Amino acid sequence: MIAHAEDLPRSRHPLIRFILRWVLTTNHKEIGTLYLCLSFTLFLIAGAMAMIFRLELAQPGMQFVTADFYNQLITVHGLVMVFGAVMPAFVGLANWMIPLMIGAPDMALPRLNNFSFWILPFAFFMLLSSLFMEGGAPNFGWTLYAPLSTTYGPPSTDFLIFGIHLMGISSVLGAINIIVTIFNLRAPGMTLMKMPLFVWTWLITAFLLIMVMPVLAGAVTMMLTDRHFGTSFFEASGGGDPLLFQHVFWFFGHPEVYIMILPGFGIASQIIPTFARKKLFGYDSMVYATVSIAVLSFIVWGHHMFATGMPVEVELFFMYATMLIAVPTGVKVFNWVATMWRGSMTFETPMLFALGFVVMFTIGGLSGLMLAIVPADFQYHDTFFVVAHLHYVLYPGAIFATMGAVYYWLPKWTGNMYSERLGRIHFWTAVLGLNVTFFPMHFVGLAGMPRRVVDYSLPFSDLNLVSSIGAGILGLTQILFLYIVVKTVRGGEKATDQVWESAEGLEWTVPSPAPHHTFETPPHVE
Amino acid sequence: MMMSSARIVATALLCRRAARNVSLGAGALYRLLVLVALWAGSQSAIAQVFDMRPGVTEMSQRIQQLHHWILWICVIVGLIVFGVMFYSIIAHRRSRNPEPANFHHSTLVEIIWTLIPTVILIGIAVPATRTLLDIEDNSDSDLTVLITASQWKWHYQYVEAGIGYYSNLATPLDQINNIAPKGENYLLEVDNPLVLPTNLKVRFLMTSDDVIHSWWVPDFAVKQDALPGLINEAWTRVDVPGVYRGQCTELCGMNHAFMPIVVEVRPEEEFLSWIEDQRLANDLAGEAAVAARSRDWTMEELMPMGEAVFITHCATCHQPDGTGQGIKYPSLAGGVIPTGPVEAHLDRVMNGLAETEMQAWAPQLSDLDLAAVITYERNAWGNDTGDVVQPLTVFSAR
Lengths: 526, 398
What we know:
The structure holds two protein chains of two kinds. Chain A is an all-alpha fold. Chain A has helices at 14-24, 28-57, 67-102, 110-129, 157-184, 197-228, 242-259, 262-276, 283-296, 312-340, 349-372, 374-380, 384-414, 420-446, 461-490. Chain A has one domain: Up-down Bundle (Cytochrome C Oxidase, Chain A). Chain B has helices at residues 2-22, 24-42, 44-47, 58-91, 107-135, 173-176, 268-293, 299-313, 315-318, 336-339, 342-351, 367-379, 391-397, and strands spanning 143-150, 153-158, 163-167, 194-197, 202-208, 213-217, 222-226, 232-236, 242-248, 260-266.
């Protein structure tokens, strides 16, 4: 394994040297960049799918796609967004920032790091190639409910299953690497309770990943054996139970939701104090709240299944447990507001994204509380209200947080400042697009429009058109973001080492752009 | 509708009063609000689609009240949190507050804002628990309906009366494909609605023949998954006669969006006489079946009947022109089965193909309908086998 481009034999063609450099790299910064580029590519692909199905949903009646292809699109959109866009983006940020934030020279297991990244392009090539296979891509929703996905799934389902196995291996290896790095490579003096919150939230996320990705692997393996090897895990006629799939899936699925949000919490907790010029309020309670959310996430999975006919005692348990999550989540929001309180705030683009995250994530959190209430959930469940809720949680929680983080650390990565004016335009158009797309979905859901339908009755027409227009705006903002980032990479006003006047943390002590190797001698933290 | 438009305009008027006191900017905002309110009020479709329906049962109304209770709590919590936040954004920006404060911890405050949400949650949990316990009380029903879902239709069986029938989407394909204008109940209309009596507690048993479906009628607040191999329970008691519409709410394959539910609630006496009519119709159908297989039918008689059956039951997958959709829904025009031996064709249509969406039609269609549709498939779209399948042949293949 060759770690540095300069070690590659000079005789090779420059293009081969370029490819080998990125394929063989074990540098945390380069691997972080790879993760972020892959994530954004997949984000654009899955987003393009959303553009197609929002186009279909703009008007009642069948216009652009067949019902079957629509189901393929929503399935692949969900899977690629979750496993391809959000998770790799957070791993990319972790790779770049965790060593810089804890004063480590690199990740603890650099070769494993390379391996866990390079699995992913193949996993997603396999998943996306299913769109071009005979019989089409998986068409049963990202939740893969049996028996629609087993007995009735298209042949390409097996590619999906293998793809998920690969993504799972990648995530678990990445998580192991992050845990080992945080536990072993912290600079002298950096105790656990001095770690930046981004590192803390990622540590907890990594434990969640290690605990639940194998559960998902088990679920899809049972799907595979049900499909081909005569087992009946999910087939009642063979002594199995279709609900078993849902229990196993959501035992993975709910912690997965927090895997996609906790690093976002960490990012907001880095950005807000910097631009409020005031220390984070309640650091300890932030850490404890994150741990509580993670622990609770293991005992609330049943709230995805209230309509499946669970006994009333079980429904009550899952309702109370789910409501409890509101307490630590509330603590986090209050802490952010208290951090801002009597600060001296400025509103550069990272701060705008962090505040947008707090406001809109809170809206999503409140609708989540509504969904926890079983009797009301009988009316909300599987309608567009749920689609609105999950996008209000995930879009601000994962995408806004990631984009805020990119604006926050891009000057450190590239040595150049992005265009503040374009950044602000990006933020405001994204806020507009997001709300115009997803807010009306609350209404159509309440009024009775089921989710995952390719066509709908006439009263829902107007609001669906509004959502589709919003989706178009949201789609265009991604192009703007790409332009801003590419422009910054290529040049711009030079950033100082400190970048932001009151940013605190070890990452701001290294030069901008961060050199290939940093902290070869560990810094000392007071 | 009138009521809600009036309410929207009233809200706008309140905004006006407030706006006058604030500033010119707010005046512009007010004008925008009025425009939006008037536009929304004029759009009957939109005025109906902003909130959960109260529905027509005690449970649906209690659920709507519960929904409003939680919604307003969330709105108030949101307004307080965002209010404090936006106040801080305005008052604590650097231009107004150049020197940041230095505090970063307060045990008392943190205990308070852990306790207050807990108290609010209890205030939600108590009414929610009460409602849930009443919803889950399935005892003492007067009538039981077994609902069996399959791709993509509902089978209703009245357990006590011993009658049953299938309920299919009735919206014509031309409306779905934007050839004909869409009707008022587009995608929410069926051939045979479920008929229920008023004032009786009706228990639903739900199950499925293939994948998971979910039976939802928003006006009853009944949403229950229909799972293959398991039976779920739910109940309702409707006081107001009328027609209520709902849809399948669990992704169940290609035609998930085309699997509506229509329930006709009739006064008890009318319901009882309807049950009698159904029994009578069943007997008549039995006699008609005997009559149908006692004679030979000509191709000219069978072809138009077969086309009608094909359009209702087969065309969503195999397409009206029989060309199918890819390998999952094979083309019947020149297809192996419709141009092959009659016995294999009968077997495929009557018994379906295991582990695919091709279902067994023998329990759903009469001998005559099956004979007609098989004859149609063997002679339409240039298949021209010349075969005429008789109801008697179908009967003996059962």
